[in-house]
Write a structure and sequence with these properties.
The chain is mainly alpha-helical and 127 residues long. It has 2 domains: 63 residues, Arc Repressor Mutant, subunit A, CATH 1.10.10.10; 51 residues, no CATH class. The chain has 7 helices and 2 strands. The protein has a two-stranded antiparallel ribbon with strand order 1-2. Helix 3 crosses helix 4. The longest helix has 16 residues. The termini are far apart.
Length: 127
């Protein structure tokens, strides 16, 4: 797998990766059924996307049985970290503060989320 391919999944590929990260190994049908809940996605489109992802090295495919099983080959945390760093640099001029302020301003955080953020900030300030 090429290093530059690792962090360049398309939006549709990211949706599929999210499913694979959450559910683990899946068939195309499994992924398609989950995608269909939120958007009008054709089965053949999902199949083609997953085949392309296999060619790009984003997923592996077990062909030992009639139904092929797909598994993510990219690490969720590393991918998220890379994409957030890229967004901070490209959209927020390198300011993580601006990203956090924008995110919290546009999204109603629950009390639990706010407490989690506070605890994380306290942990960071102790270091």
């Amino acid at each position: 797998m090429k290093a530059d391919t690792l962090f360049k999944p398309t939006e549709s590929e990211l949706e599929i990766l999210q499913i694979l990260w959450e559910k683990g190994d899946c068939t195309v049908r499994d992924v398609h059924e989950i995608l269909e809940v939120n958007k009008d996605a054709g089965y053949t489109t999902t199949l083609k996307l997953m085949q392309i992802m296999h060619e790009k090295g984003l997923v592996s495919r077990d062909t030992s049985s009639k139904t092929h099983i797909y598994r993510s080959l990219v690490n969720q945390q590393k991918t998220q970290q890379h994409l957030v760093n890229k967004m901070i640099n490209n959209v927020f001029n390198g300011s993580a503060t601006r990203l956090v302020m924008q995110a919290l301003g546009n999204h109603k955080a629950s009390t639990e989320e706010i407490n989690s953020i506070k605890a994380y900030l306290e942990e960071i300030s102790k270091k």
